[in-house]
Amino acid sequence: MSNSNLFLSIGKPIKNEYGRVIGKVASFALTPNGKFDAVYVEFGDGQFSKQPMESIKFNGAEITFISKIKNQACVLSDHIPLIWRKDDALKDLVANKKITNEVYQDLHNSFSNVLTQLKKEAQVIIDESIIEIERCNEEITSLSYAVANLEIEHEIGKVDDENYRQAFALFRIPLDVHKQRKTTSK
User: Fold this and answer.
1) Cα–Cα distance measured from residue 103 to residue 99, given in angstroms and rounded to the nearest whole number
2) pTM for the model
3) Per-residue model confidence (pLDDT) at position 116
4) d(Cα 115, Cα 118) in Å, to the nearest integer?
5) Nearest Cα to Cα of residue 135 among 178, 71, 72, 73
6) Which residues pair with 21 in a beta bridge?
7) In Å, how far are 50, 114, 170 from 177, measured between CA atoms?
């Protein structure tokens, strides 16, 4: 969607990465020169939040909210290899005497510092992912117990078939979502 057409998405539903509607596009924040800076999102509970443009993916009529962890991981997965390639090119330049050792050392140190910072940021993302996986495991366990109790009550006749099917359908979607979130957080 081109920038001028983004306004057509106002009021449209926003889905999370797992296909569930989580809110709607309420408005946009623009810089003084007209660049889209952020999206105002009305979440399902009526709360509004200003989200950076990088957190929202516009793909035709589909609007998807990208998690902070996934967004940061994508940025790092682009930056780290780029710095490695630049440092390798720098080594070739000094080896072929196209730059001086002084210039090489200065730029190499700069690249090393950037890589060190990016590695620290990557570790933070890894730590956050571990916490998210643990949270998903807890949710999966909790939902699994709820399903097991439902199954038991259905087996002994305390829950009729219709209520069983309705309740089971309520658990199936969040259980599948948590399993998918756990998988994509790894």
Assistant:
1) 6
2) 0.63
3) 95
4) 5
5) 178
6) 15
7) 25, 36, 12
